[in-house]
Amino acid sequence: MQLGEVVGTVVCTRKVPVWSGQRLRLVQPIREDGKPQGRPVVALDVVSSGEGQRVFFVKGREAAQAIADPVNPADAAIVVLVDRIET
């Protein structure tokens, strides 16, 4: 899992049918201190995140397993909403 911040929504005219009802979000990977780390990623939102919210997202095969039909082409998925980080 990787920490990120939702920075936008991706709008598509057509999506994969098994993604029906799911939003696509633009997620900026971040470090614990909130500084950006790397390039933004388009992720399937299965937890109803909001813009500006910190989240954990997964990439690769784990992303496809975030929804009921694991045979889908998801490369990244938001799986956790972060309430706070304690150090």
Can you walk me through this structure?
Helix content is 5%, strand content 38%. The chain has one helix at residues 61-64; strands at residues 2-10, 23-29, 41-45, 54-59, 76-81. It has a five-stranded mixed beta barrel with strand order 1-2-3-5-4. The longest helix has 4 residues, at 61-64.
Per-chain topology:
Blueprint: E1 2-10, E2 23-29, E3 41-45, E4 54-59, H1 61-64, E5 76-81
Brief summary of the model shown:
5% of the residues lie in helices and 38% in strands. With 87 residues, the chain is mainly beta.
Core attributes:
38% strand; 87 residues; mainly beta
- Please report which band the strand proportion falls in: under 5%, 5-15%, 15-25%, 25-35%, 35-45% or over 45%: 35-45%
Which whole number gives the mean pLDDT? Answer: 92
* SSE topology string: EEEEHE
Strand order of the largest sheet: 1-2-3-5-4
Annotation, overall tally of beta strands = 5
Please bin the fraction of helical residues. under 10%
Please report the distance between the alpha carbons of the first and last residues.
18 Å
Round the Cα radius of gyration to an integer and report it. Answer: 12 Å
- Basic shape: globular
Largest sheet: 5 strands, mixed, barrel
Poorly predicted tracts of residues:
none
Q: Which structural class should the secondary elements be placed in? A: mainly beta
Number of helices: 1
